[in-house]
Amino acid sequence: MTDELIYDWNLKDAHSNLGRWPIVVVDETLRDGVQSPSVADPELDQKMELVRLMAEMGVGVVDVGLPGAGPRAREHVLELVRMIRDEKLPIIPNCAARTLEQDIAPVAEVQQELGFPVEVYTFIGSSPVRQYTEGWTVETIAETSRKAIEFAVGQGLTVCYVTEDTTRSRPDQLRVLFENAIDAGASRLVLCDTCGHSTPNGVKQLVGFARSFLEAMDADVGLDWHGHNDRGFGLTNALFALEAGVTRVHGTALGVGERVGNTPIDQLLVNLKLLNQWDHDLSGLNRFVHLASEACGVPLPYNYPVFGDDAFRTATGVHAAAIIKALDRGDEALADLVYSGVPATAFGQSQVIEIGPMSGKSNVRYWLKSRGHKGGDALENAIFQAAKSSPTILTEAQLSEIVSKSSV
User: Fold this and answer.
1) Number of folded domains in the chain?
2) Do both 163 and 104 map to the same domain?
3) Is pLDDT of 7 > 90?
4) What is the spatial distance between Cα 99 and Cα 122, in angstroms, rounded to a whole number?
């Protein structure tokens, strides 16, 4: 039915690589996300619920924190990994760490104490601008990285090597760092758009370079993409990275993170679902987004895609009339299609029709019927005239008052 009603230009001459390799989503909300100076670090019980929701939705890996950051961070990491172990959640815990033994040792201690595997994502800056600022050379970066990776591997940790600012790093220097990391025992390479510098073409070029490098080495090493949103390309770049061949892509709830934030993981999951690349149920994604908003102290914009208050809400007469006609047919799927590019019900949402200055009589009749009120010309006209003279939509209280007065 959908194919008959919608001509999808998105699929015309599309030659997608999605589906050729597995897609794993890595949630960074509880570590990279809370680095924003405007974001609160959630309480432990909130973090636990967020991780449970991640697992339900099929998120494969969760960054549970940086245990070397202090006692609170270590306690939270320990309890989150314990919960994942005890509740047998289908999600892999990872911890961030600088390429320093003092950061990696606390991760190893958590793994050893709980007897449960934890991955370590150990990071160091790689771009010329970082080298110049820090007084580093490629050789010192490689030496520091090797010592850290070998220590982590010796502690029984799975190591993912993170080159910060990869998207502004030289290919000849990346080859040195990648080969050094793999030789030291790294299982994955993480390509980072730390400053949100990359365009989609930059993603394609960098991922293509990294894949060619790994193929030339004949290395069984995974490839991640970690992106930021400074130029507004966060979501687009994540999808391009998957097209280009990464098998893990990172994001955060609501895109929270340093400066303007990271790839919004909720929007990423929505798009993977719409691209038929996500088999897991995402009806809990609405709960996840709102819990993250509350836990992190980040207000949800009214026009935020899919989960903002206005995502499926209209007071416009023409739009509302079409939705109402679909609902009158008893066809909720059609109501989701006629004025929505995203099916509300697939993500725990529903269409909402309001009454305001741009509304028609159909809005009024729908509101009255949906609340069990008997209509009639007098009541409909009273509501309609009130709407036309109001600068905003009418609230439930205002509408109820009109109904009450009409019944006197």
Assistant:
1) 2
2) yes
3) no
4) 5
Q: Are 119 and 90 in contact (CB under 8 A)?
A: no
Looking at residue 1, what is its pLDDT? Answer: 53
Residues β-bridged to residue 123: 98, 162
Q: In the chain, what is the straight-line distance between the N-terminal and C-terminal CA atoms, in Å?
A: 48
Q: State how far the Cα of 28 lies from the Cα of 160, in Å rounded to an integer.
A: 14
Read off the CATH number of the domain in which 191 is found.
Answer: 3.20.20.70
- Which residue range is the domain that position 27 belongs to? 17-296
Q: Report the distance separating Cα 99 and Cα 390, nearest Å.
A: 60
pTM above 0.90, yes or no: yes
Which among 156, 127, 161 is positioned nearest to 144, based on CA atoms?
161
Query: Are residues 281 and 389 located together in one domain of the fold?
Result: no
- 9 band by pLDDT with thresholds 50, 70 and 90: confident
Distances (CA, A) of 240 to 132, 167, 204, 332: 30, 14, 7, 33
* Single-letter residue type at 315: A
Per the DSSP assignment, residues forming a β-bridge with 98 are 123
Query: Residue 101: what are its φ and ψ, rounded to 5°?
Result: -55, -35
In whole angstroms, give the CA distance from residue 70 to residue 353.
49
- Per-residue burial over 91-113, b if 16 or more Cβ lie within 10 Å, else e, is bbbbbbbbbeeebbebbbbbbee
147 with 282, same domain: the answer is yes
263 and 136 inside one domain: yes
332 and 206 part of one domain: no
Please report whether residue 87 resides in a domain: yes
Same domain, 279 and 318: no
Reported as a single tens digit per residue, the pLDDT across 19-41 is: 888 999 999 999 999 999 999 99
